[in-house]
Amino acid sequence: MQIIPDITALYQFGIFILAFILMNVLIFRPIMRILARRQELTEEAREASQALQGQTEEMIQKYSLKIQEARGEGQGIKENIKKEGEAQAKQVLEQTRSELEQSAESARQEIAQEASSASQQLQSQAQQLSAEMAEKLLGRKVAS
Question: Environment class of residue 131 by beta-carbon count within 10 Å: exposed (0-12), middle (13-18) or buried (19+)?
Fold first, then answer.
């Protein structure tokens, strides 16, 4: 048996070409357009995602920098407050020391005055007592 191509082979070939053209126009090209559009949208989304990621990293860096600056400022303020507190404590200490020295000096002067007064009283009492003793010993009045 020999297979000889006849006219039906041409019909089949024609139907195949017509089906191929119809499928190309109605199915393959629309699917290829959809796939191409999907690829474009995916690329756009990827680019947008990368841009957002870059912005996020930039914002994180700025935030970290601001936090570091704020910490530095906080440390500076803390140091200033500490220095001011130490200065005030030193001032209060000096003032208290000065007041104590003044109190001690006034107490010394008061004690010196009282000692001087007591010494004068004792001298006058000693003279009076010595005069009385002399009078008693001699039995007569002694002129001072």
Answer: middle
